[in-house]
Amino acid sequence: MPQPAGGPVAFVLKGYPRLSETFIAQEIAALERMGLEIQIVSLRHPTDKRTHPIHAEIRAPLLYLPEYLRDDPWRVLRAWWHVRRRPGYRSAWRTWLRDWWRDRTANRGRRFGQALVLAHEVPAGVTRLHAHFLHTPASVTRYAAMIRGLPWSGSAHAKDIWTSPAWELREKLADCDWLVTCTATNRDYLGTLAPPGRVDLVYHGLDLLRFPIWPAARAPRDGSQAQDPVRLLSVGRLVEKKGTDDLLEALARLPASLHWTLVHVGGGPLREALQAQARRLGLESRIAWRGAMTQDQLIQEYREADLFVLASRIAADGDRDGLPNVLMEAQSQGLACVATRVSAIPELIEEGVTGLLVAPQSAADLAGALSLAITEPARRAALAAAGQDRLARYFGMEANIVRLARRFGLPLPAGRVSAAP
Questions:
Q1: Which CATH architecture has domain 9-205+397-407?
Q2: pTM, whole model, 2 decimals?
Q3: CATH 3.40.50.2000: which residues of the chain?
Q4: DSSP 8-state class, residue 349
Q5: Per-residue pLDDT averaged across 289-303, rounded?
Q6: How far apart are the first and last CA of the chain?
Q7: 12 - beta bridge partners?
Q8: Tens digit of pLDDT for each residue in 374-416?
């Protein structure tokens, strides 16, 4: 397999493998197929024993750094002893000290310790470090790259952008070679903090080999039959930014004459509180909480549903979705989507054309859109078909991965171009 001009790259991730970060695994597998030699470096061990099939396809070796420095102090000390005389060590130490003065937390200290181990243990042949997420992984990557005298780059997504202070984003963007982000909304914001041309837009896109376009032929359910209710599906971690509490409030506002059920896929810290809310609202018998699922299991849920809904919002700490992959997954399986106008969701869904959009945190607006979509199966079908077509044209992974491959110096076959909506 041909090697790119730039040589092997170490991808620094917060945790690997993770069920909720299939977009990263999808990217790594695609870049490997295109000839990039990758070393995966993870700051944390996995918390879930389950994996997606794509994880089994990834060939990259895996290096786990000590999650907490107290777990392996001798490893950290050994790393420090070996790297302390490198030309870049003093610069990295001074940079970390300035960062720590503005953010005096244990996490900041842990980042430098992990960077020491990364700088010492990353294979000698690696020619670039690449951080997925602009918060903790990028900090570790930045310090380690200084110590080793390596260039570094990054991929920014959502929480890492919107919950990080501007000073830290500005300094990281000044230090890295380049950075890609997965939405135009992110790009425009980061562009105000970065040198010109430093930030590029690369949608994750959906791997249409794993989520092949499905010519859905769903029954024209309209919510009028108690024995044949419209099946709603929502997928997302049970955290504040997903707005599941807003969804429950909206469902409680639907007319009593409408018959529906909701399947929710995804785990998270708010599960018990949300289930209690569903009981208070009298919705308990209509909702099935499935928990986390693998991709293979999830595809079947998409195909059995009639309508997809995601009530994303901006959390109190500024965290928000970027462009949720689950919306693309739902569209690939011929599902009409009802979602909120948050972050980059309108980049995928055109209001009234490829889906329905409402204001975030408006239970009344969401209830109105759901009622419309539930009672009009023909409109659901039209929205689903238009969404599926737009997805295939502009948001397939194959078209978008080319832009990232070029950044890594991969030789590309003639005629391969990237798409953009």
A1: 3-Layer(aba) Sandwich (3.40)
A2: 0.82
A3: 9-205+397-407, 230-394
A4: P
A5: 93
A6: 32
A7: 41, 131
A8: 999 999 999 999 999 999 988 988 878 988 999 999 887 655 4
**Does residue 347 contact residue 353 with C-beta atoms inside 8 Å?**
no
Amino acid making up residue 396:
G
Q: What is the DSSP letter of 19?
A: G
What three-state secondary structure class fits 245?
A: helix
DSSP β-ladder status, 128-132 and 307-309:
unpaired
Residue 63: what pLDDT? 97
3-state secondary structure of 284: helix
pLDDT for residue 421 is more than 70: no
> Percent of the chain, pLDDT > 70?
96
31, 404 in Cβ contact below 8 A? yes
Spatial distance between the Cα atoms of 338 and 327, rounded to a whole number of angstroms: 9
Could you list the beta-strand ranges (E) of 138-197: 152-156, 179-181
315 by DSSP, 3-state: which? Answer: coil
For β-strands 152-156 and 128-132, DSSP reports them as parallel
Q: Give CATH for domain 230-394.
A: 3.40.50.2000
Q: How far is CA 303 from the centre of its chain?
A: 22
On the 0-12 / 13-18 / 19+ scale of CB atoms within 10 A, 183 is buried
Question: The tokens of 30 are what?
Answer: 């695609």
Residue (of 127, 159, 162, 77) closest to 409 by Cα position? 127
